[in-house]
Amino acid sequence: MLPSRRQLLAPVLLASWAPGAARAQTWPARPVRLLVGYSPAGTTDIAGRLIAERLTARLGQPFLVENRPGATGNIAAEAVARSEPDGYTLYVTNIANAAINYTLFGPRMPVKPEDFAEVGLLMQVPNVIFVHPGSPANTLQDFIAMARARPGALNYGSAGSGGSLHMSMELLKVRSSIAVTHVPFRGAGPMLVEAMAGRLDAGCDNMPSCIGHIRDGRLRPLAVTTATRSAALPEVPTVAESGLPGFEATSWFGIQAPVRTPTPIVALLGDAIDAVTKEPGYRARLLELGAMLPGLRPDGGTSPEAFTAFTRREIEKWAEAVRISGATVD
C-alpha cells in the first residue's frame, strides 16, 4: 500500500518544527535582555522591571532590563529588530513604539510592524494631565482658559514625541482650540523633575510613573484621559467630564521579540506572561499604580495571538488620530 500524502509530508513538517521546539526546551539557558527605549523611572521602565522580576522567578534565568533611551523608543526598537531572533533579546514596547510611531515618523521610522513578533500585553494605564501645585490652574477648564488668553505662550511636557502622552495633549489642543508648545523629554523621569520644579506649565504622563508625586502633593492632577475615572485617583475627573465629551486615550505596554524568534519560544514566553498577569501580587501592584490588567481575554490575561490582533487595531486607530491632530515629530 502506497503511503498517503500526509504520511509523506509528516517527516518534513517535523523536521521544520523540531529545531524551534528543541530550542524552546532549552530556553532560557542564559540571561535574557529586556530593552527599554526610555530612561529609568518612566512607566515603560516600571513595566519592564515588574515583568522581569516575575519572569526571572518563573523561568529560572535572570531577565535584565537595559535602558537605551532616544528617538521615542526607536533606538531600542531597532536594536531588538536587528538582534539574533533567539529569545535572548526582547523589547518592552508601548503604544508609541508598537502603534503611533509608524504613522507619526512615517518614512523616517527605522522599523516596521512586521519586524516584530508580539508576545504579550503587560498592562493598560490612564494618562494624567497635571500642573505644578503653584499653578493658578485648579481644573482643566482653568488651564484651557489660560491657554486661550495667551495663545502660544504656555507649554506642556511629555516623555517624548509620539505615544499617547504627546497625542493626548495634541488631541486636547484640537478639541479645545488652544495653542500650547510641546516640550519632549527623553523619558518621563526628566520631564517630571522639570514639572515638579515649576519649569513647565503642564505635563502629561502615564499614571504609574506620576501617581506617587500626585499623592505626595508635588503635582496637581487636572484630569485623566480614560473614558471613566480611575479607582486609584477617584477624585480626579476625566477630560470628557471637563468639557470635552467623548475624549479618550489609554496607554499600554507589552513585550515583543524579533520576528523570526522560534514560535515555541514565543508561545512559552507568552504563557509565562499570561500566568504572571494572574498572580495576585502582580494584580495588586497594578491597582496600586493605577494601572489596569491586559484585558485581551475574558480572564483578563493575554496571549501572542491576542496581542498581535490588538496591536494591528491600535496601528489603524492611531493613524487616524495622528491625521486628525496634525501632530508632528518635534
Automatic annotation (TrEMBL):
Query: What InterPro entries does the annotation carry?
Result: BUG (IPR005064), Bug_dom1 (IPR042100)
The signal peptide annotation in the UniProt record is 1-24
Q: Which domain of life is it from?
A: Bacteria
Q: Which Pfam families match?
A: TctC (PF03401)
Q: Which UniProt keywords apply?
A: Signal
- Indicate the family of this protein: Belongs to the UPF0065 (bug) family.
Q: Which PANTHER family does its entry note?
A: BLR1237 PROTEIN (PTHR42928:SF5), TRICARBOXYLATE-BINDING PROTEIN (PTHR42928)
Query: What name does UniProt use for this protein?
Result: Tripartite tricarboxylate transporter substrate binding protein
